[in-house]
Amino acid sequence: MNSVQQMMNWLNDPLNWTNPDGIVARLLEHLRLCGGALLLACLVAWPTGIALGRRGRGSGLVVALSNATQAIPVVALLTILPLTAVGFGARPVILALAVFAAPPLLATAHTGMREVDAEVRDAARGMGLSGWQLLWRVELPLGVPYLAAGLRTAAVQVVATAGLAALVNGGGLGMIVAAGFGLQSAGQILAGGLLIAGLALLVEALLAGVQRLVTPGSLRRI
Amino acid sequence: MSFLAQSAAANPWFSWAYLRTNADTIRALAVEHLSLTVEAVALAVVIGMPLAVLAYWVRPLTGPILASAGVLYTIPSLGLFSFIVPIFGLSRRTVLTGLVLYALLLVIRSAVTGLSQVPADVKEAASAMGYGRLSRLLRVELPLALPAVVTGVRLATVSTVALVTVGVLVGRGGFGQLIIGGFWNNFHKAPIAAGAVLCILLAVLLDLLLAGVGRLLTPWRRTGAGA
């Protein structure tokens, strides 16, 4: 029996879906971890990126931050955080994932604000808009396509990275693959891999659609 | 736990004693980490550059080539590795294949960007001087695209160094073995910190090295403003 067939058999067993640590439970856990991480990253990165971008400052910082996080292995962060004051459980996983989601969010928010035409800003000021009105009515609407692009990158990254939490028993769909290695079950390993890959591609496709919807036609080239 | 005769053993993040007694293991893992990274990036360049040239020469293929590399890049590392395990088993080749597939997108994308940014009048001048398609590519277009290619290779190298650690899944994770091994060995902090720090050091070192190589390869860019 080859491994693809074993995978089909594993996926066809309803118990593998409904078990307490079955696919459904692991999927919900995966989405909870990712949602938490994304929310945390947005809450920190967007205001920072917008504030820095509006003042036209911090380009160096944004670039340095995204380069630095490239070099940090996810595995290291997932392992170190539980042993610090953060403690074990979902919190260190969410925090680690948020660290990797923040740079694309920060960079796109920054770019989005920088790309607002200075003349548009001038015109809005001339019409008597205050600082907050300028932000809410002019700059943010113009920056939405950039924010959406960053959200898509960050979300796909988080969904993909969350699989690695299983290496430190952190939950999520990766646990299926890890358990498969423990049981020496090629079918289960493959099934877990397929579920993780499928979820990442699905999120990518969905958010690409969202990004298209919120991007005006003339800007659809990013 | 006060009822125990002995208090808990010290578990510092950094310990010379650990590094000294495990120097051989660490050295072996360093060799594994470095060789996996270098081989993966080299293979990605060898496979990726012809694909990039193909995408550049045959316009209708640009989209499909970039898109398929992009899909490969989107597949999470854990998923990708578990697809390769049934083919190559728990071997070094499993990790290497996964690393190459990830590095491919970064190499191809940067090379295509670099090649398509060669000014049209430069290409025209080269053709007018009698360069054929291939010699124009080798002597005019590729050298001009080199800075972009070097940037792509640097990016691929740094992310590959970080990604090697995922190889712990099949027991070939370089410094990742120290990190995950320490975690499961009763949260022994010394190997975790050593693995993480060495991993980042390796990434920074290779990045600086490649930046230096890039400067040596493009002497004409050094005369103006420093890059």
UniProtKB/TrEMBL annotation, chain A:
Lipid bilayer topology: Multi-pass membrane protein
ABC transmembrane type-1 domain sequence ranges = 27-207
Tell me what organism the protein belongs to: Planosporangium flavigriseum
Record's protein name: ABC transporter permease
Keywords assigned: Membrane, Transmembrane, Transmembrane helix, Transport
**Mind telling me which InterPro entries this protein's record contains?**
ABC_transp_perm/SBD (IPR051204), MetI-like (IPR000515), MetI-like_sf (IPR035906)
Q: Which family does it belong to?
A: Belongs to the binding-protein-dependent transport system permease family.
Q: Where are the transmembrane segments?
A: 30-53, 60-83, 158-183, 189-210
From TrEMBL, chain B:
Going by the UniProt record, its keywords in alphabetical order are:
Membrane, Transmembrane, Transmembrane helix, Transport
Task: Tell me which domain of life the UniProt entry assigns to the organism this sequence originates from.
Answer: Bacteria
Task: Write out the GO cellular component annotations.
Answer: plasma membrane
Domain spans labelled ABC transmembrane type-1? 30-210
- Transport: is it a keyword of this entry? yes
Any GO BP? transmembrane transport
Instruction: Return the Gene3D superfamilies for the record.
Output: MetI-like
Listed transmembrane segments = 41-58, 65-88, 94-112, 144-170, 190-213
Q: How does this protein lie in the membrane?
A: Multi-pass membrane protein
Indicate where this protein resides in the cell: Cell membrane; Membrane
**Keyword Transport (UniProt):** yes
The UniProt family comment states:
Belongs to the binding-protein-dependent transport system permease family.
Q: What is this protein called?
A: ABC transmembrane type-1 domain-containing protein
Species name: Planosporangium flavigriseum
